[in-house]
Known about the structure:
With 191 residues, the chain is mainly alpha-helical.
Amino acid sequence: MRYVASLVFLTAQKSAGVFFRRALLCFSAVVLLTISAKVQVPFYPVPMTLQVMSLMIIGCFLSRAMAFASLGSYVLLGAFGFPLFAGGGGLIYLLGPTGGYILGFFPALLVFSWISARASAGRSALFLLCGVATIYACGLSWLGLNIGWNKPLLSLGLFPFIGGDLAKTFVVWGLLRADKKTRVRSKTRAW
Length: 191
């Protein structure tokens, strides 16, 4: 009887510890997305932020479930009015010109999460670029609906961001390569 009680207690402690670690990881990812949204170059109508790079890191280094839980928490908290986005928060903000980019994070995260430690360097770079293109496609579509299709959408929502997003992609690609080399080295060590 004592053995069963201690086993139940240890199992409950272990699952509570796993839950706490996952909650802390999700919270950390939300904080990372929030801070990266606040680091911005103010363009109109869409500011340049570090969110794309943070999203790449979250998608590439967290499990798919944890990445989606983190992004879902971020968007949900922002929709409820917490000032997590680049220009504030609230449902009205999501319906504004930048809402398409934020909602485009979900399909892009799916693309980023396909990158694994087994992916080659070329495929990793291709997936990162496809994820960024997915964000652009969603964001430009929504921007066109918001400000009108007769406006210069590409010069407002695409061209100013290409150079910065290519640099962010290169940084994350370098992190992926370094992580892959570290994993290979740690597997070959005989401790």
